[in-house]
Write a structure and sequence with these properties.
Layout (H helix, E strand, L loop, with lengths): L2 H5 L1 H6 L8 E4 L5 E6 L2 E5 L5 E7 L6 H15 L8 E6 L2 H6 L21 H18 L6 E10 L7 E5 L9 H9 L4 E4 L7 H9 L2 E9 L12 H12 L13 E10 L6 E2 L9 E3 L4 E5 L2 E4 L5 E4 L10 E8 L23
Parallel strand pairs: 4-5, 4-6, 6-9, 7-8, 8-10
Antiparallel strand pairs: 1-2, 2-3, 3-5, 7-9, 10-16, 11-13, 12-15, 13-14, 15-16
């Protein structure tokens, strides 16, 4: 197996050999490591009951997730961590990492829906990553657990430094184990969607019934300029999940909020504009009746109870999401919690 992989999964991904071929090795603790592709590494213990995808680098300038994945792989290859669950690690877009930009031609995290036409590098990447994840999940036994954590960093400030976004999917999957993980990782909030989104995490939830979420880890920074101690709790939760040990105790002193998406505002015309800055912090709150956006003769106003805005961006391509609007939500977690397409999140499955 390539020496650089054992030095750094990230280093190998950014500077791969020209003659790369898939390789595998069995570690001294019996763990099978299969380097399937540039930026794609599968770790397989025997008798695993869960199958976990941890992806990063889907946007190249979101570097804390990339460093975390590299660190987790190093812990496994050095045998400081012995996983009991199967895991697929992904560093998705090396060219964008080199360029320190979100993407080269097209937003990769909007291309996970179907087989893409081969019009640019991002389409080819999306097709390749979908193929790897499909093979990974399809080799699971019936009844096995499936998880997908797609790790990102926000491009703006946020009232919640770390938060999760749970996609809405057609399969009826009780997401309470995912909520428990997010709390154990000491994240600040979770947001429950209600519409499909063609993101990587949605694709796994929709096609494989995986417990899936997009995690926003702080704010974008240059590679190796992140304070990775800020994500120690998330790393500890990942190690526990992969090792088959109990998750860290959630801290009642650590604030944790849940939100439900009330609306998605999509840009359908070049005239679209927000009434506030694109730089507004995630979860900025607007009181009932405040104007939020306009497009031609259509205006959007905050609904009764007010709404907070997440991921605002008036400069997206036509047809893409310009922002999400959310309200606080407190479910009864003694009951199942489903997040289905075009339905209120709750204990009754819509599919």
């Amino acid at each position: 197996m390539q020496k650089h992989l054992f030095e750094s999964f990230l280093k190998h991904t950014l500077y791969p050999p020209k003659n790369f071929k898939p390789q595998s090795i069995t570690l001294s603790n019996g763990i099978l490591v299969n380097h399937k592709d540039i930026g794609v590494l599968e770790v397989s213990p025997s008798n695993a009951n869960s199958h976990v995808v941890i992806s990063s680098g889907i946007h190249g300038d979101e570097t804390a997730p990339i460093e975390l994945v590299d660190d987790l792989v190093n812990e496994i290859l050095s045998e400081r961590v012995t996983p009991r669950e199967r895991v697929l690690f992904i560093i998705g877009h090396p060219d964008a990492i080199h360029a320190h930009t979100r993407f080269i031609e097209e937003n990769l995290n909007r291309l996970f829906a179907n087989e893409n036409p081969e019009r640019n590098k991002e389409c080819l990447l999306a097709n390749r990553l979908q193929a790897h994840v499909s093979a990974f999940f399809r080799s699971a036994k019936e009844g096995d657990g499936k998880w997908h954590f797609d790790l990102h960093s926000a491009i703006r400030d946020s009232k919640h430094y770390m938060f999760g976004v749970v996609p809405a999917s057609t399969p009826a999957t009780d997401i309470r184990p995912l909520v428990s993980f997010i709390q154990a990782a000491k994240m600040d909030a979770v947001m429950l969607s209600r519409t499909p989104s063609s993101t990587f995490s949605w694709w796994s939830a929709e096609n494989f019934g995986a417990l899936a979420a997009t995690f926003e880890m702080g704010k974008v920074a240059r590679l190796y300029e992140n304070d990775m101690t800020e994500f120690d709790a998330l790393k500890s939760a990942f190690v526990a999940l992969l090792s088959g040990t109990p998750l860290p105790e959630s801290d009642d002193k650590h604030p944790f909020l849940m939100y439900k998406v009330t609306r998605t505002i999509t840009k359908t015309d070049a005239s679209f504009s927000l009434t506030f800055s694109n730089d507004a912090a995630n979860f900025t709150y607007f009181t009932s009746g405040e104007k939020l956006a306009s497009e031609n003769d259509v205006s959007y106003w905050a609904i009764e109870g007010g709404e907070a805005v997440v991921f605002p961006n008036a400069n997206v391509a036509i047809g893409q999401r310009a922002c999400l609007l959310v309200q606080p939500y407190t479910p009864d977690l003694s009951l199942p919690l489903f997040v289905n397409v075009d339905a209120e999140p709750g204990s009754v499955a819509a599919s």
